[in-house]
Amino acid sequence: MRAAFMTGVNAVEVRETDEPKLDPAGAVLNVEACGICGTDARTFFNGDPGAPAPWVLGHEPVGTLEDVGPDADLPPGISKGDRVFLGSILTCGECRWCVDGFQNLCEHHLLYGYDPFPGAYSERAAVPPIAMKNLIKLPPELPSDLATVADPFACALNGIEALDIRLGDTVVIVGSGPIGCWQAVMARDRGASRVYLTDVSAERLEIALR
Ligand SMILES: [Zn+2]
Ligand SMILES: [Zn+2]
């Protein structure tokens, strides 16, 4: 199969490589699309010790479950062949924070797409056992390329929910990248009467205004 390897800072090469191994407690994803996160861009332009070259990045994958290990624990309602999104923040599920529902504070948290888990800029990608609980089934009407933003979109939504916007509120959003633009739409949806978007990049603002 083919995969895009980051071979060094600012360098990527599409190479033939071995198929991913199926972990008995994991799965293999037939990748249909994979987002390019700001973290991928930072890694690409600056390097990252978690991405030792040659390394396959990509931690916002959408694909179908091509193979599922015999000992795998799939989330309820998901089975082999389903089209899923893989959430990249990997948590142990066993530390006191995870058990109390504060997975964001997990003492052993890791990121899919970084050492030791290669990412999904490849035709097929291994889903490690720790990532099985992060699989989310996708509705058939949602195109795979759009579904890759599930992770940053959830991040934007979480921010808006924390803000508790009321009817008629004025909202200022610092940064008009994809997350800022979504938050502008979400703020309007929640009843904000004025939404200001700011940015240091005129180009970003121009795109945001479209
Ligand atoms: Zn990311
Ligand atoms: Zn934990």
The proportion of residues in beta strands is 25-35%
CATH superfamily of the largest domain: Medium-chain alcohol dehydrogenases, catalytic domain
What is the CATH domain class of the largest domain? Alpha Beta
What does the oligomeric state look like here?
single chain
Largest sheet: 5 strands, antiparallel
Number of beta-strand segments:
11
Hetero compounds: zinc ion
Number of helical elements: 6
CATH topological fold name of the largest domain: Quinone Oxidoreductase, Chain A, domain 1
Indicate the low-confidence ranges by residue numbers: none
What is the C-alpha radius of gyration, as a whole number of Å? 19 Å
What spatial order of strands do you see in the largest sheet?
A: 8-3-4-5-9
The class by helix and strand makeup works out as: alpha+beta
Provide a descriptive summary of the structure in words.
The protein has 210 residues and is an alpha+beta fold. It has two domains: 141 residues, Quinone Oxidoreductase, Chain A, domain 1, CATH 3.90.180.10; 58 residues, 3-Layer(aba) Sandwich (Rossmann fold). Helices cover 24% and strands 26% of the residues. The chain has a five-stranded antiparallel β-sheet. It has a two-stranded antiparallel ribbon with strand order 1-2. A two-stranded antiparallel sheet has the order 6-7. Helix 5 links the parallel strand 10 and strand 11. Helix 4 packs across helix 5. 28% of the residues are buried. The structure holds zinc ion (2 copies). One zinc ion (ZN) binds next to loops.
Explain briefly what this protein structure is.
With 210 residues, this protein is α+β, with helices and mostly antiparallel strands. The chain has helices at 38-46, 96-99, 144-147, 150-163, 178-189, 202-209, and strands at 2-8, 11-16, 27-34, 61-68, 83-86, 89-90, 110-111, 124-127, 135-137, 170-174, 194-198.
